[in-house]
Amino acid sequence: MKTIGLIGGMSWESSLYYYRIINEDVKQRLGGLHSAECLMFSVDFAPIEKMQAQGRWHEAGQVLADAAVRLERAGAGFIVLCTNTMHKVAGVIEERTRIPLLHIADPTGAEIQRRKLRRIGLLGTRFTMEQDFYRHRLEKRHDLDVLLPDEAGRETVHRIIYDELCLGRISPVSRQKYIAVIEKLVAAGAEGIILGCTEIMLLIGQEDVQVPVFDTTKIHAMAAVDRALEGEPAPLTESDPGARPPLGSVPARVESTAT
User: Fold this and answer.
1) With bands split at pLDDT 50, 70 and 90, how would you rate the model's confidence at 236?
2) Given 37, 83, 150, 245, which is the most exposed site by the fewest CB atoms within 10 A?
């Protein structure tokens, strides 16, 4: 089993689910008392968020690259960056390390292709939705037609991520706002929806949406298990994420009055 090197903390609200999903999946596949060999470096998100807002992306990339180097030195076999937005600086991390980075967009794109879908709606931070680093990777490497919410929808999705989800605030009012944004994307032709921020799975699930939902947190974590177990004996269950039983990775929602 390869050791998984996780860069978390962006935010820790979603990073904890990476740890849980990865370990539940290893147990499901190998049985018994098996769990994952993994290391996590959890950064302080406040200065990272400030760098995002100020456009200091290279500086933020160096912070995450430092974390990746420390994971590599500690014995990680590959890096998992537990955030969609900060994949904008994936190249900085790759330049500083000798071990591979498992890019979150690639297993997501592969899963959408496996489901034989092409027109896909993307939710995430403004950076993820509006900049090229994520959307173009899906379009060019995975032949997807990516649809975005309108300006008002993008503002709503972005604000709720930073003002609520990253702080652990789960609001039924905000859920309805997300559902309204999703319904517009479906009306525009989206065949599925990417939850392209690792916190969105705290608010939206398949039960809320009429088309397939692609939870990047779960997809990325399961892809990490696939990479970690390459060359291991045949697992107890199918290795295809779509064939695995539900992981039960998200507990019952705890609603707040945040709006």
Assistant:
1) low
2) 245
